[in-house]
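To close the section, here is one more complete example, presented without commentary so you can practise reading it yourself. The ligand is glycylglycylglycine.
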Amino acid sequence: MTIQETQLCVIPGDGVGQEVIPAAVAVLRAVMPQVQLRYAEAGWETFQRTGNALPEETLAAARQTGVVLFGAVASPAHPVPGYRSPIVALRRELDVFANLRPSRCWPVYDARRDIDLLIVRENTECLYVGRERREGETAIAERIISRHGSERVARVAFQLAMQRKGHLTIVHKANILRVSDGLWRETCLAVAREFPEVQTDEALVDSVAYHLVRQPGRYDVLLTPNLYGDILSDLAAALAGGLGMAPSLSLGAGCAIAEPVHGAAPDIAGRGIANPLGAILSVALLLRYVWQRRDLADVVERAVEEVLAQGVFTPDIAPPGQQPVDTRAMEQAVLAALRA
Ligand code: GGG
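Output:
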């Protein structure tokens, strides 16, 4: 599978995914008019209509373009026969093993000023392999950590650390999970020896959670197994302006999925008030890390910064007492900032 530079498979998905993805596409088209889009469907709504949450045509489009912009999905919490989470399946099918979740300070009233970090989360293993079973009144979940899985994500994280401040923290809980996190720790430390330019340290996940709240500026790149990265990245997003602002990019060998960290948000879906900046900033990650257009990524991120500095906020980030704008107005504000 190879990345076609100008092709993108767009999967809006469920709920607010349908509202934020058009804004992200408009911004992408503004900076990269040559991009060719292939729309595809996936999600709970698709399942209800077709009986398949991730149709074959969607998978084929994702494989052919190699690059996906995904909105959000809302899987039911109860088991539904024949249903499997389409985004989990897509990540697995494309084997996007490294999930990048940056958190930086945006001009939002309750965002911390001292945060600028990148969480690199292993995306295919850990408890997320879904091997759970019941044995009577006991439930058992298997946690898989492999040398191969740890090594490949660690290499991505160290390469990214070299492009940033050159500092990486290996996150684990190897004092308790001596075998699984022991292998993770040992493998990441071995990869660290390939990158002597990067200042490497290690920390227990609970200690990282504590210090993230107290002093997030002490971290640059956090390299984590799947579950810890999931939890810590929500914490970091909360410090940096909220989930509505949080972008992500999952990278594999020759393929990528960009998606806002937030889910389908059924509580506000259909009202046109979702924050599209997480999706727009996910496009910036595509530009920076997949299409190697750092110049365009900077342009998009500067436009977002400018709009926020002008005091344009969706309800999730508006300061108390300030009239918020809706999704479309935020999109238009970013497009105007791009034109200015
Ligand atoms: N854009 C990320 C997203 O949709 N997050 C929610 C999520 O991953 N849900 C899994 C599911 O509902 O199947």
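Once you have examined the tokens, check your reading against these statements. The longest strand covers residues 7-13. The longest helix spans residues 147-163.
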